[in-house]
Amino acid sequence: MTFSLRSLISRLFGRPPDLAIPAGLWRELLQGLRLRGGNYRESGAFLLGPKSDFRKITSIVFYDEIDPAAFDTGIIEIDGGAMADLWRICRERDAAVMADVHTHPYGAGQSETDRIHPMIAEPGHLAMIVPRFAAEPIRLEEIGLYRYLGHFRWALLRSSLLRPTLRIEGTVHG
Ligand SMILES: [Zn+2]
Description:
Layout: H1 2-13, E1 19-22, H2 23-37, E2 44-49, E3 59-62, H3 63-66, H4 83-93, E4 96-103, H5 112-116, E5 126-130, E6 144-150, E7 153-156, E8 166-169
Parallel strand pairs: 1-8, 4-5
Antiparallel strand pairs: 2-3, 2-4, 5-6, 6-7
Bound molecules: zinc ion.
Zinc ion (ZN) is lined by residues 102, 104, 111, 114, 129.
């Protein structure tokens, strides 16, 4: 009950979230990460959406869809050549990469590797980290969301009532 009231207040008076994902895609994303990680290795995906200031996700590209070996070492590594496939998919879908997401075995803090290797090195790009290999239950407040500022610096995004970071659309949760 308190959740839906919070959500209602933020929708009525708040600013758009940093990232919005329809509930169906969110489920697909978490299931896909879980399946690929098998609860023992990291998995990840690019989140695509139309080019606009408001980052709304409309499709997912799991890393192994462009590089079948991406998860093989347990630490995510994508072959540089595979990025050409990503840009082709973006063109086909008339979309851009809004964010990337990957899992961690424990918490959602950025590792040194995460900080110095942005998947997309463009200021404004968002990186999401889902703890515990995306095992259920997933609580939104446990998810790490970081905005790339350039020069290997990042801002941790913090949610507030009037400024949600991540919004799953089509559910009562803000
Ligand atoms: Zn990481």
